[in-house]
C-alpha cells in the first residue's frame, strides 16, 4: 500500500515512534515561526531554558498582530523581539511588514519541509506542500532549541477535488463548504490532504486560503501536493530553487475520503458567530451592511485585494457602508500602490490600513453597536471584533466587495445581473513579486546581540510538581466550543499585557464571567468545567498559563481542542474528559475532589480517575495522555520538566533530544 504525502514528510522527519494513527510520534522541525503576541513568551522561555542559539534550519519572528503600537508596551514587546531574534539567530520581520503567514509564504515556505509555529494558522504553507503545524509557544521554544515536536499521529483524510470553480466562486467558498459539511470540530485529530484533478485548477495563493482556514475545522494541518503551479509561484517569488516535487503515492491509503466537485461550489458566507455557520450568500441577501473589511492571513494577499480593486474600478462604495482594506503583507500594499490599484480603491471610497492582523482580533475598525460587518477573515467568534454583540460574517473578497457596492449582502452573480457591466474579476497573480522587503532582517544583518526588556516584560511563572491530592471548587461551568478568545481575549486593552502574566491573568475568562479571576484567586485552587471542544481557536498558551497563575488545577471537559490540550499539559493543568451526564450534573460552585493519588496515578499511566462531587456522588473522568505528557504534567509543566531533564533530575535529556 502506498503512502500519503503527510506520511512521506513525517517519515522523513521521524525521530520517535511509528506512523500508527493515534500513537504519539516525535518529528524533527525544519522551520519555526512566531509572532508578536506569542513570541515574547517563546523567547523568555528560550532564555529561561538557558539556550543560546536557534538550532532549526530557519526561525522567523514576525511583528504583525498589534502593529499600531497604541501603548508603549506593544512597542517594547517589538523591540524585545527584535533583540531576541538578533541574539539567538532568527529572521526578524518589522512591525507593519505583514502578517506572519503571508510574509512566511512569500519568503520561506518550502515544499517537503516541516514547520512549527506559535500561531494556529501556521498550516498556511500547506498550499505549497510544506507540513506546517500550529502549537503553543513552549513547543516552539523547544523545537527552536533542537528538540523534537510530539503529536498523536493524526488521521489523514483525502479531500478529492474534481472539476473547476465556476464564475464568482472562490477558494474561500471551498473551505467554507468544508466547514459547512464538517463543523468547527470536524477536523480534530486530522490532516486534510487535497488531491484529485481539481487541484491543478487552483493557484498556490488559492490553495493557501484553503490550508489557512483548515484551522477552523480544528485540523492539525492541511496540505496540497506540488506541481507546475507551485513551481510557477515560486518562480514568480524569485525562489525557483526551493521547488521540490512532493505528492502522495497513487495507491496511498487514507483514513477517510471526502469529494468536492468544484463546479458545484457557489458563493457562501458564514453567519455570526461561528465559522461553520455557513449558508449560500443568496439566503441572507438584503441584510444591510455597515462595514466591509478585506484582509487577514486567509484573504489579505495581493491576489485577494486585486479582484476587489477591479470590481470597484470606476464605481463607489455605498454611502452607508465603510470599506477597509488591510493587506496581508507590505509587499502586497507596495505592489498594489505601484500599479495604481491603491489610488483606484481610494477613489472608490476605500480606506487603507497598514499590513497587520489588527481588526481580526478587535484592534482597530471595531464595528458599531448593533451593526453588520462582512469580513474576508477566518474567525467570527462572538466579541472577537472588539464589541460583545457583534454580527460578523465571513466571506470571499468578491462577496465582501459586492456588499460594499450595494450596501447590503448580495450574491455577486445577482449584482452582476443588476449592474450589467460587472464582470467576475477572476484570479490573477503578478508576473513577479517585486516588494522591496527591507523590513525583513536576516540573522547576519541583526542590529542587536543582547535582549532589551522594557518594564512590562516579566518572567514566566512556574508551577509546582503535581501533588497527590487535587481538590477545589468548580470555579466556572461553560458551554460547548469555548474559544481561547473567551479565555484570554486579544483586544488591544488586554493584548498589551501578553508579556506580563500577573496583569494579563486579571482578564482570564472575563468574557464569560467578569468576576472569574478574583473568585479563582480567593478560592485558592479549583477546576474549570466545559462542554465539547474546549479551547478551540488560537494557539495562545496564555489561555493555559493565566488560569494556572490563578490557581486552576485542571479542566473537566467533554472534549478538548488539540493545541489547547497540549498547552494545558505544558503548564501543568490536568485535562480530564467527562461524559455528557457528568457534565450535566456538575454545577458551578460544587466541591470537586480527584480521589486517587493524582501524581502517582498520572505517572503510572492510569487512565480512569474518580471524581467525587460535594462528597456526595462520584463519576469517572478520563485522562488521555502519552507517557511523555504524563511526565510533563507531573513535573508541573514543560518548562520545569525540560529544566529538570537538563539538570539530569529525571529520565531524559536536554531540549536537543526532548
Ligand atoms: C488568532 O487568530 O486568534 C491569533 C491572534 O492569531 C492567535 C495567536 C495569539 O493569540 O496570539 C492564533 O491564531 O493562534
Ligand atoms: Fe492574524 Fe487573524 Fe490570521 Fe490570527 S487569524 S494570524 S489574528 S490575521
TrEMBL record:
InterPro entries: Acnase/IPM_dHydase_lsu_aba_1/3 (IPR015931), Acoase/IPM_deHydtase_lsu_aba (IPR001030), Aconitase/3IPM_dehydase_swvl (IPR015928), Aconitase/IPM_isomerase (IPR050926), Aconitase_4Fe-4S_BS (IPR018136), Aconitase_4Fe-4S_dom (IPR036008), Aconitase_put (IPR006250), AconitaseA/IPMdHydase_ssu_swvl (IPR000573). Its EC number is 4.2.1.3. It is an enzyme of class 4 (lyase). Keywords: Iron, Iron-sulfur, Lyase, Metal-binding. Residues 528-580 form the Aconitase A/isopropylmalate dehydratase small subunit swivel domain. GO terms for molecular function: aconitate hydratase activity; iron-sulfur cluster binding; metal ion binding. Residues 7-407 form the Aconitase/3-isopropylmalate dehydratase large subunit alpha/beta/alpha domain. NCBIfam families: acon_putative, PRK00402.1, PRK07229.1. PANTHER family: ACONITATE HYDRATASE B (PTHR43160:SF4). This is Aconitate hydratase. It comes from Halorussus aquaticus.
Amino acid at each position: 500500500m502506498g503512502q500519503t504525502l503527510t506520511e512521506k514528510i513525517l517519515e522523513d522527519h521521524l525521530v520517535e515512534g511509528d506512523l500508527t494513527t493515534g500513537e504519539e510520534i516525535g518529528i524533527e522541525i525544519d522551520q519555526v515561526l512566531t509572532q508578536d503576541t506569542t513570541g515574547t513568551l517563546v523567547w523568555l522561555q528560550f532564555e529561561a531554558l538557558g539556550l543560546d542559539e536557534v538550532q532549526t534550519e530557519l526561525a522567523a519572528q514576525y511583528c504583525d498582530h498589534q502593529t499600531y503600537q497604541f501603548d508603549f508596551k506593544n512597542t517594547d514587546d517589538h523591540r524585545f523581539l527584535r533583540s531576541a531574534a538578533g541574539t539567538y539567530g532568527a529572521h526578524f520581520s518589522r512591525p507593519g511588514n505583514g502578517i506572519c503567514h503571508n510574509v512566511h509564504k512569500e519568503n520561506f515556505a518550502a515544499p517537503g519541509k516541516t514547520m512549527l509555529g506559535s500561531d494556529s494558522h501556521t498550516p498556511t504553507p500547506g498550499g505549497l506542500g510544506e507540513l506546517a503545524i500550529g502549537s503553543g509557544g513552549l513547543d516552539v521554544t523547544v523545537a527552536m532549541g533542537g528538540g523534537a515536536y510530539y503529536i498523536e499521529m493524526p488521521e489523514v483524510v483525502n479531500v478529492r477535488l474534481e472539476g473547476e470553480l465556476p464564475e464568482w466562486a472562490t477558494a474561500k467558498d471551498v473551505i467554507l463548504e468544508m466547514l459547512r459539511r464538517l463543523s468547527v470540530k470536524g477536523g480534530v485529530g486530522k490532516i486534510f490532504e487535497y488531491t484529485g484533478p481539481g487541484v491543478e485548477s487552483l493557484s498556490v495563493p488559492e490553495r493557501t486560503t484553503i490550508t489557512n482556514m483548515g484551522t477552523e475545522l480544528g485540523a492539525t494541518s492541511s496540505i496540497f501536493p506540488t506541481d507546475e503551479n507551485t513551481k510557477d509561484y515560486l518562480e514568480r517569488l524569485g525562489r525557483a530553487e526551493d521547488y521540490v516535487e512532493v505528492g502522495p503515492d497513487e495507491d496511498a491509503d487514507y483514513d477517510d475520503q471526502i469529494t468536492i466537485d468544484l463546479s458545484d461550489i457557489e458563493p457562501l458566507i458564514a453567519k455570526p458567530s461561528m465559522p461553520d455557520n455557513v449558508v449560500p450568500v443568496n439566503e441572507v441577501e438584503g441584510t444591510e451592511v455597515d462595514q466591509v473589511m478585506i484582509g487577514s492571513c486567509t484573504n489579505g494577499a495581493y491576489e485577494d485585494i486585486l479582484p476587489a480593486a477591479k470590481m470597484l474600478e470606476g464605481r463607489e462604495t455605498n454611502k452607508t457602508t465603510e470599506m477597509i482594506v488591510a493587506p496581508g503583507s507590505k509587499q502586497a500594499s507596495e505592489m498594489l500602490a505601484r500599479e495604481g490599484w491603491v489610488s483606484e480603491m481610494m477613489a472608490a471610497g476605500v480606506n487603507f490600513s497598514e499590513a497587520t492582523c489588527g481588526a481580526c482580533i478587535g484592534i482597530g475598525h471595531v464595528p458599531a453597536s448593533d451593526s453588520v460587518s462582512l469580513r474576508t477573515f477566518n474567525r467570527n467568534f462572538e466579541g472577537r471584533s472588539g464589541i460583545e454583540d457583534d454580527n460578523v460574517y465571513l466571506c470571499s473578497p468578491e462577496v465582501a466587495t459586492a456588499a460594499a457596492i450595494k450596501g447590503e449582502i448580495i450574491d455577486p452573480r445577482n449584482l452582476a445581473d443588476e449592474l450589467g457591466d460587472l464582470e467576475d474579476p477572476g484570479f490573477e497573480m503578478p508576473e513577479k513579486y517585486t516588494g522591496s522587503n527591507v523590513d525583513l532582517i536576516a540573522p547576519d544583518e541583526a542590529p542587536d546581540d543582547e535582549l532589551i526588556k522594557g518594564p512590562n516584560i516579566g518572567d514566566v511563572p512556574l508551577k509546582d510538581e503535581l501533588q497527590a491530592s487535587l481538590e477545589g471548587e468548580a470555579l466556572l461551568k461553560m458551554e460547548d466550543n469555548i474559544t481561547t478568545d473567551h479565555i484570554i481575549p486579544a483586544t488591544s486593552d488586554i493584548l498589551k499585557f501578553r508579556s506580563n502574566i500577573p496583569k494579563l491573568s486579571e482578564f482570564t475568562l472575563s468574557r464569560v464571567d467578569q468576576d472569574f479571576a478574583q473568585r479563582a484567586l480567593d478560592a485558592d485552587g479549583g477546576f474549570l468545567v466545559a462542554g465539547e471542544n474546549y479551547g478551540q481557536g488560537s494557539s495562545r498558551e496564555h489561555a493555559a498559563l493565566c488560569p494556572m497563575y490563578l490557581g486552576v488545577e485542571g479542566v473537566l471537559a467533554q472534549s478538548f481542542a488539540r493545541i489547547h490540550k497540549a498547552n494545558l499539559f505544558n503548564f501543568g493543568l490536568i485535562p480530564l474528559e467527562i461524559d455528557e451526564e457528568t457534565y450535566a450534573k456538575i454545577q458551578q460552585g460544587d466541591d470537586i475532589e480527584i480521589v486517587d493519588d493524582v501524581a502517582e496515578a498520572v505517572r503510572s499511566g492510569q487512565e480512569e480517575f474518580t471524581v467525587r462531587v460535594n462528597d456526595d456522588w462520584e463519576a469517572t473522568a478520563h485522562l488521555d495522555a502519552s507517557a511523555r505528557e504524563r511526565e510533563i504534567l507531573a513535573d508541573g509543566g514543560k518548562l520545569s520538566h525540560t529544566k529538570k531533564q537538563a539538570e539530569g533530575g529525571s529520565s531524559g535529556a536536554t531540549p536537543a533530544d526532548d
